[in-house]
Write a structure and sequence with these properties.
By secondary structure, the protein is α/β, with parallel strands linked by helices. The protein has one domain: Aldolase class I (TIM Barrel, Alpha-Beta Barrel), CATH 3.20.20.70. The protein is built from twelve helices and 13 strands. Helix 5 links the parallel strand 7 and strand 8. The longest helix is centred in the first third of the chain and has 20 residues. It is globular.
Length: about 375
């Protein structure tokens, strides 16, 4: 019955709600729904959400890094950067969430437009540039709170021209980690986001020497929570492997593959939509192919040394399963939620159970990387 309702709600969203919602400015809609989600998550209605959307199946359960994940579907950093959705997401069947990306100092965001829709492409133009309230304010919001599922915080470099050197950038990131640690938050993991393509200045951490400098400083903090590194998809295979050679030298538990699409020549774009956005980079379908290629590449060489979180172009259970079979232990999404509806995590989990059963697997862990072997 619940599965039928989830499918029905998805059809209702795509055919009735979404056309209406897409009449309005993307960022205003985003702000409205995160605020609305916060209200619902803290209200008596959350009991109904649990009944309608939440379902558990041992086939999808995994314990990774001593963290229990009831299912592999998480909300990626980039959506809940005001820490509003921790109560509602587990009720609509998300298995985990990453808050952020959060920086040492607050940042009001890049110049508008910061968000836009490419409807035929199934993509979002993203140009927020780590818009957030700063690590101190977010930590104050989260202090003392307990969560129904694993919650992580994504931390990145403050987006300001005042940080002009690698050394200053490392200091800025380390300061953010220290503040979060001082608040003794009940989070499950940290994400180190080194891959946002919408930041000002020339500081970056892609070159092995620069990445090593950062990871050495993060490691010296002796953080009690696992650290994941969010990777770009814009680099060549050789560059990604060079980065991975550095990452596996440090106690990094997972890499997230990956971030936004910078290559505007990608064949998944509908050109008439693309020319409307001279700035920004892109999520959704344009990230899917390259994300899957890199997941498989990294799993083949480092799968026995580090876990992979697949991110990019997940709109269905088949999309998520492709990432898992390519080597991802967990999967994150944002754009699919906007295009498919708030029932998507629940829908994907139903579909994953069916796909795993069809292939003869009793647990999702058995299917990880089978297409990369």
């Amino acid at each position: 019955m619940r599965k039928f309702f989830v499918i029905l709600f998805g059809a209702f969203y795509k055919n009735i709600l979404r056309p209406f919602i897409f009449l309005f400015d993307s960022e205003k809609v985003h702000n409205f729904f995160t605020g609305f989600g916060q209200i619902l998550g803290n209200s008596w209605i959350n009991s109904f959400l649990r009944i309608l959307f939440l379902h558990k199946n041992t086939t999808l359960h995994q314990t990774l890094f001593e963290i229990d994940f009831e299912n592999p579907i998480g909300l990626s950093a980039g959506f809940d950067y005001q820490a509003k959705l921790m109560n509602i997401l587990p009720l609509v069947c998300f298995g985990f969430e990453t808050i952020g990306t959060i920086t040492n100092l607050p940042y009001e965001g890049n110049r508008k437009p910061r968000l836009g829709r490419l409807i035929k492409t199934k993509s979002l133009m993203v140009n927020k540039g780590f818009k957030n309230e700063g690590i101190k304010k977010i930590s104050q919001k989260l202090k003392g709170k307990k969560f129904l599922f694993p919650v992580g915080i994504s931390i990145g470099k403050t987006n300001t021209m005042q940080i002009k050197t690698q050394e200053k950038a490392v200091e800025d990131i380390i300061s953010a980690f220290k503040i979060a640690q001082n608040y003794k938050l009940n989070i499950s993991y940290y994400e180190l986001n080194i891959s946002c393509p919408n930041l000002v200045g020339n500081v970056e951490f892609y070159e092995p020497q620069k990445l090593e400098q950062l990871l050495k400083a993060v490691t010296a903090l002796n953080l009690p929570k696992p650290v994941f590194v969010k990777m770009p998809i814009s680099k060549t295979n050789e560059e990604i492997l060079e980065m991975m050679d550095v990452i596996i030298k440090y106690p990094i538990k997972a890499v997230i593959i990956g971030n936004l699409q910078k290559d505007r020549s990608d064949k998944s774009f509908v050109r008439q939509e693309l020319i409307q956005f001279p700035i920004g980079n892109f999520s959704g379908k344009p990230t899917q192919k390259r994300s899957n290629e890199l997941i498989k590449l990294v799993y083949q060489k480092y799968g026995n040394k580090i876990k992979i979180v697949g991110c990019g172009g997940v709109f269905s259970g088949i999309d998520a399963y492709e990432k898992i079979k390519s080597g991802a232990s967990l999967v994150q999404l944002i754009t699919g939620l906007i295009f498919e509806g708030p029932q998507l995590a629940s829908q994907i989990n139903f579909e994953l159970v069916d796909l795993l059963k069809k292939d003869g697997f009793t647990n999702i862990s058995e299917s990880i990387g089978i297409d990369a072997k």
